[in-house]
From TrEMBL:
CDD domains linked: LSMD1 (cd06168)
Sm domain mapped to chain residues: 24-137
Keyword Ribonucleoprotein: yes
InterPro entries: LSM_dom_sf, LSMD1_Sm, Sm_dom_euk/arc, snRNP_SmB/NAA38-like
Subunit structure of this chain's protein: Component of the heptameric LSM1-LSM7 complex, which consists of LSM1, LSM2, LSM3, LSM4, LSM5, LSM6 and LSM7. Component of the heptameric LSM2-LSM8 complex, which consists of LSM2, LSM3, LSM4, LSM5, LSM6, LSM7 and LSM8. The LSm subunits form a seven-membered ring structure with a doughnut shape.
GO cellular component: NatC complex; ribonucleoprotein complex
Pfam families, per the entry: LSM
Native source organism of the sequence: Ascosphaera apis ARSEF 7405
Highest taxon of the lineage: Eukaryota
Keyword terms, alphabetized: Ribonucleoprotein
The protein, known as: Like-Sm ribonucleoprotein (LSM)-related domain protein
Length: 139
């Protein structure tokens, strides 16, 4: 049985150098706007202040965004289905009359429904590292 050897560049890595590069990278993020996704599908957008060994992150001037609930989507769909009947007035050149045509979204197989995310300003916030799913740097 063949023994698997690690890549040569991995064995010569200096841990102190990696720590130094990590600190430099985190230092470059201070004051930048981060978008942090959490395990409960919320999104926090704020200014990066600090972090710790447990991957907790502190953001300042933070806004929290939540995806709409199923009830909100259903309510918006009900409103959209009652208001999407369109009446269009067109001139018929052969008879010189105006013809009204009515179309409804219920006859279409798919409809696009736009529901806004809810948001609120929360200021300074600590995000536990165990709940962070993804971090994006804006700008």
């Amino acid at each position: 049985m063949a023994e698997i050897q690690p890549a040569p560049n991995l064995t010569s890595v200096n841990p102190a150098m990696d720590n130094e590069r990590a600190v430099t990278y985190l230092d470059s993020l201070l004051g930048r706007t981060l978008r942090v996704h959490t395990s409960d599908t919320r999104i926090f957008v704020g200014e990066f202040k600090c972090t710790d060994r447990d991957r907790n992150i502190i953001l300042g001037l933070t806004h929290e965004y939540r995806y709409p609930t199923a009830a909100m989507v259903n309510a918006e769909a009900a409103v959209a289905s009652t208001t999407t009947t369109n009446t269009t007035m067109m001139a018929d050149p052969s008879t010189q009359d105006t013809v009204a045509t009515t179309s409804s979204s219920s006859s279409q197989s798919q409809a696009v429904l736009r529901v806004n995310m809810t948001s609120r300003f929360i200021g300074l916030v600590v995000l536990p590292g165990e709940h962070i799913v993804k971090i994006e740097v804006e700008g």
